[in-house]
Fold this protein.
Amino acid sequence: MPHFQIEYSSNIEDVVDISALCDTIRASAATVQAFPLAGIRVRAVRVEHFSIADGNPKHGFIDLSIRLREGRPDDVKLDALTIIFSALKNFTAKAMETRPIALSTEMRDIDNVLSAKFGNIRDHMEDSA
C-alpha cells in the first residue's frame, strides 16, 4: 500500500501524457519513506462524460485519490500528500499554461480489518542495492 487512482477528463490527453504522469506519481511516492516500494500501485481511469464549472468543454480535471492502510500519523500523511501533490502540479504546469485544468488530491485510510491483501511482487522485485 498505497494505491493511487487517477481519474482524468478525456479532453486533456492531448496536453498531458497520462502514462508519464503515472510513472511520475510512482517515482514520487517511492521517495516517501512511509510507503513500501512493493506496495505502490498507480492506475489511471479516463472519464469520458463530465461537466465542469460553466460548461466550457475545454475545462479538464485530474483527481488523484490516495488510499493507504491506516496507522500512519497525520504529519507523515500530510508530508506524503504534499510531496505527491507537488509532483502532480509540477508535471501538469506546462499544460496548465494553455488549458484550464482542475487538480485535486485526497488521501484516505483503509481499515486494516476490512482489507484483504495477497501478492508475490516482493518475491520478483530486482534487488536495487
